Known about the structure:
Layout: H1 4-18, H2 20-25, H3 31-53, H4 59-63, H5 66-89, H6 92-99, H7 102-113, H8 120-137, H9 147-167, H10 175-196, H11 207-232, H12 237-243, H13 246-258, H14 265-282
Helix pairs in contact: 1-11, 1-13, 3-5, 3-10, 3-11, 5-6, 5-9, 5-10, 6-9, 6-13, 7-8, 7-9, 8-14
Amino acid sequence: MKDTKPRLLLIASMAIFGTLAPFVRLIPVSSGELALYRAIMASAVILLVLLVTRKKIPFSAIRRRIPLLLASGVAIGVNWILLFEAYKRTTVSVATLSYYFAPVLVTLVCPFLFKEKLTLKQVVCFVMSTLGIVLITGIGSGEGGHLTGILFALGAAVLYASAVILNKFIQGVEGLHRTLLQFLAASAVLLPYVLLTDGIHLGGMDGMGWASLLTVGLVHTGLAYCLYFTALGSVSGQKAAILSYVDPLVAVLISVTVLGEPLTLWQAVGGVLILGFTLWNELPAKGKIGAA
C-alpha cells in the first residue's frame, strides 16, 4: 500500500517516544536543565533538516503568530520539566498512562473554546478516563500509588493539552516549522530559568550521562519529531490515532519487563480505561494529538 512507508515512520517515531523515560533517569541534571538541552538539540536537528531539504521558513506568517508560538513553546518546555519529574518520582508506566490524560482534557475544553457541541460520547470518555486516573492512583483499591509523581504527570498533561489547544489557533505555519519555533521559544524561556535556579551542571556528567543526554536531545526529540511530521501528512487521522498508541504501550512494556517496575491489576485496568476511551474518542478525528 502507498501509505506503508509513512505508517512505518509514524510507528518508529512513536516507539522512540516510548523509550524516553529510561534515558531521562540516566542523566544526572535537574529536570529544567534537561528540558533546556532537549529543546536546544532538537531545534538544531530540525533546523538542519530544513536546511538540507531547503524548506523555507514562512516568516510573513510567523510574524502574526509570534505570541501564540511563544506561549505554546513555554507550555511545551514546562510540560517537559513536569514529565521528567514524574519519571523520577513514580514508575514509567504510571507516569505515561497519567500523561495520556491530555487528549481527554483537549476534548473537554475545545467545545467551550471553539463553540463545538459536547457530545455524550465525549462526556463518557472523560468520565471513564477520569475513573482510570483514580484507579492508577490507587484510590479506593487499597493500593498506594506514587501520588507526587502522578500529580507531576497530570500537570504535564494539562500543559501539553494547553499547547495542543494553542496550536489550533496557529494557522499558516507548517508542523515542522511550528515545532522548530516552539522549541526555540522553549529554549529562550528555559535558559534564564535554569541559570536562576539550579544552574548548569554539564561538567559533572559521566560518559553514560552524556550518551543519554545526546540520545534524548537528538534521537528522542529531533529525529522522532522529524519522522512524526514527515509521516503525518500521508497518514489518515484514524490510522494516526491508532498508531500513536505504540508510544504508551512501548513505555509500559519497558517499565514492566526491562526496568522491572510493578504494575498492579487496578493500575493496569486504569491504564486500559484511559487508553481505550481516549482512542475511542479520537478515532473519528481528522488529526492526531501529539506525542511526548
